[in-house]
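Hey L., structure's done. Input below.
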Amino acid sequence: MKRWFRSRRSIATPQRSIDPMLLDRRTPYHDESVPFVLLWSQKSGCTTLLTWFLAHAGQLDAAVAYGRWVHDYEREVMLRRPAQAEHLRDWLESGVPAFKLVRDPYQRAVSSYLSLLEIPDGATHDTLPMRAAIRRMVYGTDDVGYSFSFRQFLAWLETQDIDLVDDHLASQLTALDAEIDDLEYLRLESLADDLAAVERRFGLDHVDLGSLPQPPHHVQRSAHRFADASAIADLQPRITIAEGPPLPHADDFLAPDVVASIERIYAADFAAFGHRRRSDAANATDALDVADALDVANAPDVADAPDAAAPA
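Output:
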């Protein structure tokens, strides 16, 4: 198997030194048999990205055999290899190419919200303390079986430090991003094309995403599209959502006030990754409508206008 690892000591101009503590959070995917490092965030396609990465590292069969959840293999095998953290730091400091997968913040916010409704009450899971906190805000107690709406979820999230909240909800942008020179972005919305371009760039065999094991936590979406986003933003899905009816598409949750809330919460992500703010587009449309209205208001009355066909 070809090894791409290069010690930073063999590079004439290494990039800046990286604080090892920055590698403890969302530890990038890396292996000496793959010629790049992949940064990721929860609820931004990380499971698909990891599965694709393992295929190129020649470890996918081992990961699938280890358990149904490839992240178990990541945590319990990949990250426990001797000197793994040191290798990662050396590799990044050597200037190895690095890519980060990012997702549209609106879509990710909906996905993060729904992730809080996947696990039944009484189970043990990282999301349950957050669900309890939101219930206490909404109902005054967490000892209820009720769900909560996307709008209520965002109201709670706006009271949190978005960089310190659980990583399933936290900003995609991290302090590590700024420490990596020439970090390149992959977009979940065009993931198949972006990964194929990476494969061509490094001369790797193509891995068809459709042929890979699928994540077990995707939810069923309704075939119907809903016109009233405000009503959908107040919807309180069943817990667990897998036992309820198909859910609306993410765009169906995006009432104007919801859009504004997401843009406030994830302002750093919008600024860093270049996703278009929907409020900017709405404001531009409103400005055009106002301009058109002014043009009509200021136009001369047709009855008073000169007849172009009349002789001078």
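The beta strands are 37-39, 98-102, 184-187. Residues 1-12+19-103+172-218 form one domain.

-- N.
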